[in-house]
Design a protein that fits this description.
Layout lengths: L8 H17 L4 H19 L5 H16 L5
Amino acid sequence: MPITSKYSDEKVEQILTEIAAVLDKHSAGPELSLMIAGNIATNVLNQDVAPSQRKVIAEKFAQALVSSIEDKSH
């Protein structure tokens, strides 16, 4: 069953485009871009998620990340 988001694809793409432009402006390569993305995820978890839920949400996030990059051809 596909996962449905309460956010429109258009909204997500708009934000991603703006973030990509900032990273490009600062010539952030893959390593720095991933470090920044990780810091954003950590900050969101620490600021907006109850301490009792942080690990569970972080694990789900990590699983979703791995699933999104797995080779779908096999």
